[in-house]
Design goal:
Distance between the termini: 108 Å
Strand content: under 5%
Length: 108
Amino acid sequence: MEKQRRRRYDEAFKREAIRLWRTSNRSADDVAKELGMSAQTLYTWGREDRPHGGGLPGNGAKTLRELELEVGRLRAENEKLLRQREILKKTLGIMTETPRPLMGGLKP
């Protein structure tokens, strides 16, 4: 018995397969057979690509991967803003200090 090789699919193929399945009103089995793959693979891809946030793809909803990338970007931006705020607070503190007499309070 010959062992079947596992096929690799690129991201463009995966997206197109999911789009075809979701927009054709056909079953995953039918679409998968047409594409020469298993329905289980199509279900897995669909689950990974499912939009979060209660919307449909294209309506502003994002995939889990997109959300993870956005969270990372926002965390980095937040750290930068926190550092900038601390610098501004220190600068403001220095600028609002009352000047001290230089020579112990000379009288005219």
